[in-house]
Amino acid sequence: MTTTAVELRRFGHEDLPAIRQTLLAVHADAYADEMDDEFNQRFPWFVDHWGGHPGFACVIGYDGDEPVGFAYGAPAAPGREWWREHLSAPPADDSTFSVSELMVRPHWRKTGTAKLLHETLLEDRPESLAVLLVDPGHSKVEALYEAWGYRRLGNRQPFPDSPNFTVMLRDLRVPAAT
Predict the structure, then answer these.
(1) Which terminus, N or C, of the chain has the lesser number of Cβ atoms within 10 Å?
(2) What is the pLDDT confidence band of residue 160, given thresholds at 50, 70 and 90?
């Protein structure tokens, strides 16, 4: 599929009630084959958790009126960034934006939409770093993030029923790869 014209809309913490159902609907489509997994069934809790953060930022892409995907996250609490355990010494500026979700519905995958959502979420962020977790069973996704400037730091299992995710960190002061 070729890149389609996707309209990007930005949202914050105060917008969560208006966008919550859109996020849940995109997730249900993106993970339609994996909804029997209890971890995926808890997605509404994650939306509420991240959306409850005053610094919550979200970008939703639309093709006409149809939501095609989204990216969201929030600033990490200073000194509590979960990537720290993987570095012997933190960088001088350790302010971090945690990218919690990047999701694109199947029909719009491989169109450049994921990168567009991701880069729009991170553009103009005041933090120095971005961090995210990737299921190590998805090596192509890890490689994609590496192409976007992230580096692998180690692994972390935030919940007993979650994958043992790969921790990836990106310096936001370095231009993203094209």
Answers:
(1) C
(2) confident
- Nearest Cα to 46, choosing from 17, 72, 9? 72
Q: What does the alpha-carbon distance between residue 158 and residue 104 come to, in Å, rounded to a whole number?
A: 23
Domain span at 34: 7-171
Taking the CA atoms of 105, 27, 96 and 143 in sequence, report the sign of the dihedral they define.
negative
Q: How far apart are CA 6 and CA 155, in angstroms?
A: 33
Cα(157)–Cα(165) distance, integer angstroms: 6
Integer angstrom CA distances of residue 47 from 83, 138, 143, 177: 21, 22, 26, 29
DSSP string spanning 137-155? T-HHHHHHHHHTT-EEEEE
In tens, the pLDDT along 142-152 reads: 999 999 999 99
Query: Residue 51's domain is classified under what CATH number?
Result: 3.40.630.30
| Within a domain: 176 | no
Query: Residue 43's pLDDT band (boundaries 50, 70, 90)?
Result: confident
pLDDT at 39 over 60: no
pTM over 0.85: yes
Q: Domain for residue 133, yes or no?
A: yes
For residue 178, tell me if it sits in a domain: no
Query: Coil, strand or helix: which one is 40?
Result: helix
Give a yes or no: residue 2 inside a domain: no
